[in-house]
Model the fold of this input.
Amino acid sequence: MSDFDIASYVSRIEANRSVKDALMQSLKTRRPPYRISVTDLLNLKQAYFRRKYPEIAPPLEKQQLMWAGTGFHKTFGSAVSSEEYLEQFVEAEGIVGKIDIYEKIPVEVKTTSTPIDTKDLLKYRPTYIEQLGMYCAMVNAHEGEIIIYHRPAEESPSTPPLVVYHVTFPNLEAIREEMRRRRDLLVQALIANDPSNLPVCPWFNRQCDYSQVCDCATTPMPASYKIAELAGEIYVDSTTCEQLLSKMAGAQSSQLFGINDIVFPRKAYFERLKLSEGVREEKEEYLRSMDELGFLDALRDSLRYGAPGEAQRIPVKHAPLADLVQIWQKLPTILRGPKFSSLVERERLPRMFPHYFLRLGFDCALTEHTKGRLLLYYVKVPKEDAKLMVYDVNFRNLNTIKAEALRRLELLEKATSPLQLPKCPSWMCPYCDYRLECGEA
Ligand code: SF4
Ligand code: SF4
Done:
């Protein structure tokens, strides 16, 4: 199998400092939305202080933790549903919200590391029910679901990774009334510069960025769970849970290939084989890796939903290849999170990370761009400002790169043995489950 050396097609790599600085800045100062949101109505005091003290932004490390869950939501959503149902924006009564998955009924996805007593969600997680209740009221649905992913914890290894709750809301108008009441309370407090009428947040007493400025110790209005109390029936829905787990197992076994499949065709071959054999143990592992994507996901968000006109995703179709190429500031852009604890010098990048360059090269060739952008976020580099690097990469001979992409696609389609496919980078083999079958052990 002749090796395609992507490094010889890279004509120039430039570190782009100004883009890096702008990106870091926008990450550090992500502002809450201007309009009132469902999450504001869950924590009125915090919503007030967030607007009054925008300079008190949580440190990057803390945001990283907060985003861990977000990463899970999106990846999980894509595995069990499809793009048109994910992250649906809704607006009603001057309040905005984003429903994780909304096909027939609203579905909220939550992650937690503390096992919850499955019998009493109302007692242990009233805010989950409040949030779902508000979404249901906004879209006029009398029922919704809460999916909880338990991060694996040593002290409770037997906790099921996924629990689904079905919740009904018989009185949507009463929920809407309470939403209006909370909205008006917040608006009045903002106008009057006086938060004393706002109830304390549910996580009162825990570490909060606004505790220095908050008046909760002197004017404590108790937290209320009026919306959660309006819930009707709450039950654990194990049928849906099973269906979700099976969907996840089948999520990657569609007939179409993605661009990454032609970057690692051999691995793609094995993965398909394995999935079609119905191997299920990987599901938990899969859930876990989704959870870890959080921080990179926040960065990816900046690329995907940047300033208007800045970000777009271009569909690429070459049967049987169907994928989307991320364009950011007019350039195909990929973001990766190498686990190295120090930065790799620019000249060594294509040899060290040939798969990143293959992917970017394929993205560029398939969309006819000679230049692409590689963002590296070194998760393990301790210094905050050194973690992110932005490189502008120029490719030569786009046609040859495109021909290689199509050749791999054809090979992948026709292969009857993995040995007919190009190898993955050799550092991957020692960690790979297929090394025995692949002859790399
Ligand atoms: S200090 Fe407590 S009540 Fe005040 S904003 Fe923070 S969590 Fe809410
Ligand atoms: S053993 Fe190596 S070449 Fe084979 S599939 Fe795994 S990573 Fe790829």
